[in-house]
Amino acid sequence: MNPIRSIIADNLVKGIHWWSDFWEKLVIEDSNEYLFNQLFFNREGFIIMAENSEEDKHYLIFLKVFQQAMKGNFAKMYAKAEAGKDPPIKKKVERLRAELNYCYDELSFKEYLSDFLVRGGLNKYFNQHQEEIALLIKKIPWQELRIWSLLAIASYKPKDKPIEMNDESEEE
Q: Is there a contact between 121 and 72 (Cβ–Cβ < 8 Å)?
């Protein structure tokens, strides 16, 4: 059985949010990143669950804002990468995850989140939903937003790189 589905099912049986306890499972108990990788490979299902829940719509907006900031950060890495070399995206993803784990209270999380969103550059989702995001950050417990930040990282799907054609590959 898929461990992510099992966690979600257990949470629903308990009558709590389907995403509850993800932080504990993904960070504290997942030292080998098994669950994190499972969530990454099941990200489409995760997005569908959030989209189908009226209650989770505002979290989905937060997720898109966070992922847009990730996209901006990754674009900067690609721009700085040497020709022919891939930037260390996986390393950056792990760093984002670690930075979230260092958030120990509301203030440290909000400082991290603000800095992260600024580093991401212009963010169309943030601009479209400024009021909703500001209220969400103000009203929702920071621990829940940290969970959704981790879910945003795990469910982020980078665009496929275009395949470059050279003279040799065209002849084959």
A: yes
